[in-house]
TrEMBL record:
This is Glycerol-1-phosphate dehydrogenase [NAD(P)+]. Keywords: Cytoplasm, Lipid biosynthesis, Lipid metabolism, Metal-binding, NAD, NADP, Oxidoreductase, Phospholipid biosynthesis, Phospholipid metabolism, Zinc. The gene is egsA. It comes from Archaeoglobus fulgidus. Zn(2+) binds at D163, H242, H258. It is found in: Cytoplasm.
């Protein structure tokens, strides 16, 4: 159900040199005691810039819920009135949880473009090797410096591409659930999630450089996070392709990033939509992923055919209340094997 009082970023700086806007953002939200959360790697790379901000900082050493709870406890008797998370997805997720528990504003300063957690109200962790998602505070501001993000490993940018285009099948699942189960659906929120995804897909199809379109990708990931906030759940950005990715994580298979896994899943489920409902173009998605350098073979993320099929079958058991094309068609092992062959993922 859509969240009519959704918390979405009121300040967004998405440009080269945006890092210099952090102090301005802190001032605009009337913060007097902001604290930076970052990790050692990011601190070493951006040490001079971070030190120049003049805020107290805490180093995030573990990307898990326990780490967030430890930091929250450490700060609970302090005068902290804002959390500035500077780093990749895990630092931002820890920062969200800490800000939520302390009930203070969260400023998101991503150093990668790997997934839509940049602006979403969801924190994702692995606990005992298994993925969990926690509702958390969405950022009041996003400061995305293109100069910094374009220097992150290209694999992380490819991952962000996969996470963004996965909105295409996620929204199809949402519509399907509306039609078959009567689930509440919002076309405006769906459009916020999918328009940037199709824009990015079309740019890739035109064989444009992903580096040139990094701003477009980041804007799309931010809009994806906004759609999640407005929907009150990850529905507009998480469907069968995310169930597949979670199943891979649960089973401990492969070495793909989240975005790489959902990208592969998007090819699979777009194929199913095209073949069963006449709605889709899996070849266009696969070709776009190839052009940006994202994985388009199971072997590229360390999956065998049998492992992928096991994960696809397991996916039906994950988030059972979230109706997707998996529940509508209930594909067999043989059907999944045929799909993997026809899409040439194996």
């Amino acid at each position: 159900m859509e969240n009519l009082e959704a918390s979405i970023p009121s300040l967004v700086y998405l440009q080269r040199g945006a890092f210099s806007k952090i102090s301005k953002v802190v001032e605009k939200i009337n913060s007097q005691n902001a604290i930076i959360l970052t990790d050692q790697v990011v601190l070493e790379i951006l040490k001079e810039r971070i030190e120049k901000l003049g805020f107290e900082k805490i180093i995030v050493t573990e990307a898990n819920l326990l780490e967030a709870r430890k930091i929250e406890a450490m700060l609970s008797y302090s005068e902290v009135d804002a959390i500035v998370g500077i780093g990749g997805g895990k630092v931002l997720d820890v920062s969200k949880v800490v800000a939520s528990e302390l009930n203070v504003p969260f400023i998101s300063v991503p150093t990668t473009a790997s997934h839509d957690g940049i602006a979403s109200p969801v924190a994702s962790f692995k606990e005992q090797g298994r993925p969990i998602s926690i509702s958390a505070k969405a950022p009041i501001a996003v400061v995305a410096d293109i100069d910094i993000i374009e220097k992150c490993p290209k694999r992380l940018i490819h991952s962000g591409f996969g996470d963004l285009i996965s909105n295409i099948t996620a929204v199809k699942d949402w519509k399907l659930s509306r039609d078959l189960t009567g689930e509440s659906y919002n076309e405006v929120i769906a459009s916020i999630a999918t328009i940037p995804a199709y824009l990015m897909l079309n740019k890739a199809k035109d064989n444009l450089s992903l580096k040139e379109d990094l701003e477009t990708l980041l804007r799309g990931l931010i809009m994806s996070g906004v759609a999640i906030s407005m929907a009150g759940s990850s529905r507009p950005a998480s469907g069968a392709e995310h169930k597949f990715s979670h199943a891979i994580d649960y089973l401990g298979y492969g070495f793909g990033t989240h975005g790489e896994q959902v990208g592969i899943g998007t090819i699979i489920f777009e194929f199913m939509y095209e073949n069963h409902y006449g709605d889709g173009d899996w070849r266009a998605i696969k070709e776009a992923m190839k052009k940006v350098g994202a994985p388009t073979k199971l072997s590229e993320i360390g999956l065998s055919k049998d492992q992928a099929i096991s994960a696809l079958l397991q996916a039906k058991m994950i988030r059972r209340r979230r109706f997707t094309i998996l529940e509508a068609l209930n594909p067999s092992k043989e059907e999944f094997e045929r799909i993997l062959r026809e899409t040439e993922l194996i």
